[in-house]
Amino acid sequence: MKDTFRGGVHPRGHKELSREMPLRAYNPVGDLVFPLAQHIGKPAKPIVIKGDPVLAGQCIAEADGFVSANIICSCSGKVKAIEKRRTIAGTMQECIVVENDGQFTAVEAYTEREELSSLSNEEIIARVKNAGIIGLGGAGFPTHVKLMPKVPLGIRFVIANGAECEPYLTCNDQLMRSSAKGILEGMEVVLKLFPNAEGIVAIESNKPEAIAAMQKAVNGHPRIRVLKMRTKYPQGGERSLIKAIAGIDYPINKLPADVGCIVSNVGTLYAIGRAVHYREPLFRHVLTVTGEAIAVPRNFIVRDGTSFAELIEACGGIREGKEAVKVLSGGPMMGIAVGTTDVPVTKTTNAITVLAEDAVELAEKQMTACLHCGRCTTVCPSGLMPQMMADAITAGDMERYENKLHGLDCVACGSCTYICPAKRPLTQAFKQTKAELMAKKRAAAAAGGKQ
To answer: Which three-class secondary structure state does DSSP give residue 294?
Structure first.
């Protein structure tokens, strides 16, 4: 078991902007918007109609299939519309719009605690599913599906991802400092499902307060320990953690469970603990609003459906003398640039980063031909050859890209683009190519062709 992985880079963290700002609960004023596709898999199916009264904690759209997740309302009020609204991805998606009454009346108080020993594994998974929990640190894989691997006794590690390696983000740091016991309760729930597993809480070394809080919480627990990881990006990547902790590389067509690992963000584990012990569904989570253009960067406990614009105003708006050049959902390495702040927070939104300078625009002006220096290969955490992958894309040789260079194994971490002295947009090319290849595979499968 090691404290890091092969490759990686060391971008400036910028965490000083918000790392000492404690979590603050924020109750929105405006309407809340709930996209039906907030997770990997099939979008949820609405179970409310226009005009229906709703409460915080009420399921308003149910999972439509095995790989899908419930959508939970985060405020009280009434359903204003079910219509297409613009989302973080820039596309118009079907959403449930709720007129917020400002009372936040909940379905239940979520204060009565039930002991884990009284629940069967089936009841635990049902509560996680009913709560609408998905992975809060990545692409949004439905958690109840993750907790049902083919061989439960084959799971050797349950990894709590507290690395938070993305620059600017500090909300998980604050969650670990303030709610270590709650995270531990979620870890205990998952370990009950996997009796042969060891629990590992992985935290980067630049979070000493979080490490101390989690070590205190796990003290005396025979199956859980805290592992201090080296501060390096992308330390918090699922594959990076598994490589460091379990010593395993695995192909893109395999899941972590296939190699004996379950990886969950610390926020996801906290939500699991709340769902199983208190029957509290997932309708709020931690989020950082930060960046040099923000007047007062903060860490929030935010209700799903809140608009980006409202949260930016809750931080004092744009800093005097600065201009919001770019707004990201997430951080600068793996975040998505949004064209408008009139978009809602979803379950997977972990940050709003408002930049006063656009590094991508600057890089475009400085871009040259490839220097063949090999730095991109050195830093790639997946052991790929980005230079050759880019050449294959330029040549239109998708067979070489996919089958010989294993381009689909790219996790789009951005390390190659960051380190490239020629300022080539490598990650962007790989993202686009992967999306196109996967779309063709889905179309072929739908038509009955070979994948």
So the answer is: strand
Q: Using CA atoms, how far apart are residues 87 and 99, in angstroms rounded to an integer? A: 18
C-alpha span between 167 and 174 (Å, rounded) = 15
Residue 338 to residue 341: CA distance in whole angstroms: 7
Summarize pLDDT for 349-380 with one digit per residue, the tens.
999 999 999 988 888 899 999 999 999 999 99
Contacts of 125 (CB under 8 A, 6+ apart): 144, 147, 148, 193
34 SS3 class: strand
Closest CA to 184 of 105, 106, 273, 104: 273
Q: Which three-class secondary structure state does DSSP give residue 91?
A: coil
- Give bridge partners of residue 61 from the DSSP assignment: 46, 71
Q: pTM here?
A: 0.95
Judging by DSSP bridges, how do beta strands 298-303 and 23-26 pair with one another? parallel
Contact 185, 273 (CB under 8 A): yes
Report DSSP state, residue 402. I
**Checking phi first, is residue 406 left (phi over 0); if not, alpha (psi -120 to 50) or beta?**
left
Residue 318 has pLDDT above 70, yes or no: yes
Q: Provide the strand spans (E) within 304-350.
A: 326-329, 336-337
Residue 99's region, left for phi above 0, alpha for psi from -120 to 50, else beta, is: beta
Q: Which residue has the tokens 């980067």?
A: 204
Report whether pLDDT(189) > 50: yes
The answer to whether 273 and 204 have CB atoms below 8 angstroms apart is no
The answer to whether 381 and 5 are in contact (CB under 8 A) is yes
Q: Which residue has the higher pLDDT, 176 or 449?
A: 176
Check whether 451 has a pLDDT greater than 50: no
